[in-house]
């Protein structure tokens, strides 16, 4: 097993793995909802090692992957205009829209800048007052506080050339949507540790009680993941459903309350489209009315319509990313995987993003048993 050669305490890892096998009386089905966890499960051979004992389903744990096509198309159209700069994290550039990506626009002369923080985009707007700077605000609850800070900073500086294209999404409503599907097979969840550093895990209590489904907060290291899996299957074998925290070094029950406060100051919760999952009730954020002057969709609505084309008409029939993101399909079971769809020529976002499940399988498929 690959991680035993790399981890500083291989005996502990092996003991956790043996405990999982000893506890399970029938194959169990768990879902992780974090792309970083997906990559670790494959990189360290954990998924392959647990085959026949625990089936790991990869959920919509990549915020880049679930960013709706129409938002990418909107950003592409903005970047094609000489008076507008679209600033984005590098992960977003190669994600395909309906016809082009931001990387395509950039290569043909469009003004797309890679930044490492939303505050970099604020600084860009401050230094280039003759241009409109649009920051493509993508991410789960983890990154929403940073973009909220950027909005407050832009307001303090009275910048009238800075806006956000808001595509922040919320994890728990997506879990609700997955559990409500009639074909859902998930018996327990490994919750995203980095999201819970902000949100805490108290908000999962009601979800667990209503669905009678364990939720275990886990980190990203092999022992974090094995400990989380062991906790989850132990609950299932004992007919329990609780919220537990196997990532206590980083996550507290109440989360980061200062970050939560700043998000509430700038954003309202809203029904939000997710790529591959449709509109999820309360599935994301929108700017509060007092900050709508920083909303790119509002400011540039006269130039471009965010809803000009329905998402259904934008889909690539060959790409099965919607089924991958909802856990209905393993990437290697997609007919296009590794042939028509590769990191160099992707059909969908999960093959491009550093947190995408398809990219993980492409990179580590030999370790995944394929």
Fold blueprint:
Elements: H1 2-6, H2 10-23, E1 28-32, H3 35-43, H4 46-49, E2 54-58, H5 63-66, H6 69-79, E3 84-88, H7 102-107, E4 112-114, H8 118-127, E5 132-139, H9 144-157, E6 162-168, H10 171-180, E7 188-192, H11 193-199, H12 205-211, E8 215-218, H13 222-237, E9 243-245, H14 257-266, E10 267-274, E11 278-287, H15 296-299, H16 321-325, H17 357-364
Parallel strand pairs: 1-2, 1-7, 3-4, 3-5, 5-6, 7-8, 8-9
Antiparallel strand pairs: 10-11
Helix pairs in contact: 2-13, 3-17, 8-9, 9-14
What does this entry show, briefly?
With 370 residues, the protein is an alpha/beta fold. Helix content is 39%, strand content 17%. It has a domain at 64-169 and 257-306: HypD, alpha/beta domain 2 (Rossmann fold).
């Amino acid at each position: 097993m690959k991680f035993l050669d790399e981890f500083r305490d291989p005996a502990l890892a092996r003991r956790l793995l043996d405990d999982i096998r000893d506890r399970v009386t029938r194959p169990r089905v768990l879902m992780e909802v974090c792309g970083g966890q997906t990559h670790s499960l494959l990189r360290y051979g954990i998924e392959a090692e647990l085959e026949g004992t625990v089936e790991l389903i990869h959920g919509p744990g990549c915020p880049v992957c679930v960013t709706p096509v129409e938002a990418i198309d909107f950003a592409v159209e903005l970047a094609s205009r000489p008076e507008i700069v679209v600033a984005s994290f590098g992960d977003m550039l190669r994600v395909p829209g309906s016809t082009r990506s931001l990387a395509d626009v950039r290569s043909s002369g469009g003004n797309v800048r890679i930044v490492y923080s939303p505050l970099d985009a604020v600084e860009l707007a401050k230094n280039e007052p003759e241009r409109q700077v649009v920051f493509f605000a993508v991410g789960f609850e983890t990154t929403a506080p940073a973009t909220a800070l950027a909005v407050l900073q832009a307001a303090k500086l009275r910048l009238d050339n800075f806006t956000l294209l808001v595509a922040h999404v919320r994890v728990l409503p997506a879990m609700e949507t997955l559990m409500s599907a009639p074909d859902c097979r998930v018996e327990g969840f490994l919750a995203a540790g980095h999201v819970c550093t902000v949100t805490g895990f108290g908000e999962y209590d009601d979800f667990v009680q209503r669905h009678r489904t364990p939720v275990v907060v886990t980190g990203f290291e092999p022992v974090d993941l094995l400990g989380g899996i062991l906790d989850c299957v132990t609950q299932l074998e004992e007919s329990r459903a609780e919220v537990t925290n196997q990532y206590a070094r980083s996550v507290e029950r109440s989360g980061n309350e200062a970050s939560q406060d700043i998000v509430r100051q700038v954003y309202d919760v809203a029904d939000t489209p997710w790529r591959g999952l449709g509109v999820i009730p309360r599935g994301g954020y929108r700017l509060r009315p007092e900050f709508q002057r920083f909303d790119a969709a509002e400011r540039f609505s006269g130039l471009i319509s965010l809803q000009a084309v329905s998402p259904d008409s934008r889909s690539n029939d060959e790409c099965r990313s919607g089924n991958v993101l909802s856990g209905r399909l393993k990437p290697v079971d997609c007919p296009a995987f590794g042939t028509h769809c590769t990191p160099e020529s992707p059909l969908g976002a999960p093959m491009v993003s550093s947190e995408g499940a398809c990219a993980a399988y492409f990179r580590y498929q030999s370790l995944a048993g394929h």
